[in-house]
Amino acid sequence: MEPYLLHNREAEVGTELPALEKPPVTRMQLIKFAGASGDFNPIHTIESVGQEAGLGGVIAHGMLIMGFVGQALTTWVPRASIKKFGVRFSSITRPGDAITVRGELVGKEETDEGVWVKIKVQAVDQKNEVKVKGTCEALLPRA
Amino acid sequence: MANPEDKKGYVFTAYSGKVEAGKIKELALAIGEDNPIYTDEAKAKEEGFDAIPILPTFMEAIDMWYGPTFEDLMEQLEIDMKKLLHGEQEYEYFAPIYAGDTIHAETKVTDVKAKRNGMAFYTLETVYRNQNDEKVMAARMMLVKTP
């Protein structure tokens, strides 16, 4: 599907972008993510280590949640347009949490190379607790 | 115990790794990312890429599989892994990175701020170059050591 901001070129600053709703995080997903990313910190996969660390069990990799945000980004802008992507990790995610990624267009400027856009992103869980927040800057090709 | 701020300027041993199509697919599957450009070269080409591109957060796999292991990293920074939090992560993209590329990465501790309460904030910056010595990406990571 064509990224949202390519077929909604008139979208103005303040526009809320279509949210990406992810299914609840599972323990199996954390195991797969550990293998894929190479981050084998046991607090993400071994229950007793998560308990010992005072986390009350295993917690999701922050980078998994950033990955969800990255997925949302390419539903809004083409992958090739993304120039900068940064997040701050605000709270932990546990198995069972269902993440929704929201975005808002906060900047838009015509430049010589194309249309530069700035998007504010936020990943929240089912209780609306913020897990990560950040920004993405992208350079859209001209129509 | 050493002052965390002594780690400012610390340079890690550089590392190189190949971007594998299978690894891109594996990360896409783990995230539940279904954009076909990450698995289907024809779809990637339709979007103007020369080959399968990486996911925006893929460089972590290069870091973790070819750079210091998590335990090594913590040992070099003298952080107890149970006291570590990932505070911030930022990427800058200068040119596409494709399946088949070989990436060379150099990481440096650019800043450390220790607080009186025992917290410490480490900023690590990594510059990634491809096989043509082209600067393709940069990353900035903030790690937090809790008391």
Automatic annotation (TrEMBL), chain A:
<dbReference type="InterPro" id="IPR029069">
    <property type="entry name" value="HotDog_dom_sf"/>
</dbReference>
<feature type="domain" description="MaoC-like">
    <location>
        <begin position="13"/>
        <end position="123"/>
    </location>
</feature>
<protein>
    <submittedName>
        <fullName>Acyl dehydratase</fullName>
    </submittedName>
</protein>
<dbReference type="Pfam" id="PF01575">
    <property type="entry name" value="MaoC_dehydratas"/>
</dbReference>
<dbReference type="InterPro" id="IPR002539">
    <property type="entry name" value="MaoC-like_dom"/>
</dbReference>
Automatic annotation (TrEMBL), chain B:
<dbReference type="GO" id="GO:0003857">
    <property type="term" value="F:(3S)-3-hydroxyacyl-CoA dehydrogenase (NAD+) activity"/>
</dbReference>
<dbReference type="GO" id="GO:0004300">
    <property type="term" value="F:enoyl-CoA hydratase activity"/>
</dbReference>
<protein>
    <submittedName>
        <fullName>N-terminal half of MaoC dehydratase</fullName>
    </submittedName>
</protein>
<feature type="domain" description="FAS1-like dehydratase">
    <location>
        <begin position="8"/>
        <end position="138"/>
    </location>
</feature>
<dbReference type="GO" id="GO:0006635">
    <property type="term" value="P:fatty acid beta-oxidation"/>
</dbReference>
<dbReference type="Pfam" id="PF13452">
    <property type="entry name" value="FAS1_DH_region"/>
</dbReference>
<dbReference type="InterPro" id="IPR039569">
    <property type="entry name" value="FAS1-like_DH_region"/>
</dbReference>
<dbReference type="InterPro" id="IPR016709">
    <property type="entry name" value="HadA-like"/>
</dbReference>
<dbReference type="InterPro" id="IPR029069">
    <property type="entry name" value="HotDog_dom_sf"/>
</dbReference>
<dbReference type="GO" id="GO:0044594">
    <property type="term" value="F:17-beta-hydroxysteroid dehydrogenase (NAD+) activity"/>
</dbReference>
